[in-house]
Description:
Elements: E1 7-17, E2 22-27, E3 31-38, E4 40-45, E5 48-53, E6 56-60, E7 65-70, E8 76-85, H1 90-97, E9 102-104, H2 107-118, H3 125-145, H4 160-172, H5 179-186, H6 190-200, H7 205-223, H8 228-234, H9 240-251, H10 255-265, H11 268-273, H12 279-287
Antiparallel strand pairs: 1-8, 2-7, 3-6, 3-8, 4-5, 4-7, 6-9
Amino acid sequence: MKIYDIISDFKWGQVVYKEFGQFGPRLQELVQLVYVFKGHARISVDGHINDLPAGYATLLLPGRTEFFSFSTTEPTHHGWCEARAVHLDEAAFDALEALPFRVAMSDRMRMLDGMLIDLDKDRAAQSCNLQQSLAQCIFQEFLYCAGYQPGEQGNVQEHPAVRKAIAFMEVNYSSELDLEQVAAGCGVGGAHLIRLFKEFRGTTPVRYLWKVRSEAAAALLERTGLSAAEIAYKTGFANPAHFSRVFKNHYQVPPVRYRSQCWKAKEPSSRTDQSPVPIESFMSEFKG
């Protein structure tokens, strides 16, 4: 069973704290997402202090004592979405606990929260049902961005460092990255991360990064009119020649031929009636 199938009865909201604001201590009884739109939050969980800057979200688990302190230089605007956890067994709890403390908010998460809050104006029963679905989608999006992958029992079988590395790559693949940067973001050494990837993924972190970049490039080839060279630089490749070589290793055809095959596979009406997706909106959607 997937973790997001055992949470229900969602509640949500937004709040603004003034400079030097504080909240707590409190005993967390639910599964709660907290995300900061502006300002900064410092959260103590059972005495362990973590920072949550603007643009990031965190998942708080039941049974922990929490204390919040907010920015001393500006008001802090944050949102929250919480749920009851039904049958949150030890395996599911461990899976959630192994996720990174903070995850960059995706554009989809922001959009879902905006829709959720906007529907508060509508008191119709249908809107309440829709809001519950949107709240569950926010949890699903967070888990996706955090690198959660459900196993047969809803557990995450991979080492936490592997999941953190994958989540880091999927957010930052368009930037210049090397092994040590990815490893540092996971709290392990480069050599150790290589061993973990070989054990759990059968590949190396660098090769996995090229896979992520190739998948992003493939989506751009299919859905935009950008040149192969433009796509190469937008997805983190060193140059067009490197992009073509790596892409062909993954898809068995060069980038230009891949695009041609994708476009030919579409119905003529869908090719002529639709314009290429604007690159800015598409890149935000993909990096989610």
